[in-house]
Request: fold
Amino acid sequence: QVQLAESGGGLVQAGGSLRLSCAASGRTFRTYDMGWFRQAPGKERDFVAAVSGSGGTTFYTDSVKGRFTISRDGALNTMYLQMNSLKPEDTAVYYCAARVPSPYSAYDLEGRYDYWGQGTQVTVSS
Reply:
């Protein structure tokens, strides 16, 4: 069983930065694929970024490429999302997700993830 807890959300002006953290429990965390999704008001939950269990492969949705960086620290059982050059359209609740290692399964589909955190609010003001 894996439990996830996000932190680091908040209110920031456009152009600013935030770093989200996702703390995971469970001995097998370092082998799990991990991802970030977000849900804006009135919209579906969308993929943001993912990192493979090995940490060697990362994926990003087009709208955040060059601005967001996903990373993980196996020793700390923590995953991060560094968000720079934030825009008002980045405003959403951000969720971290985990799944058993599945290198041949799509990383950008929420239905492919087994565990979810409770979410953290990110608000970007214009």
Remarks:
- The CA atoms of residues 11 and 123 lie 5 Å apart.
- The first strand starts at residue 3 and ends at 7.
- The mean pLDDT is 94.
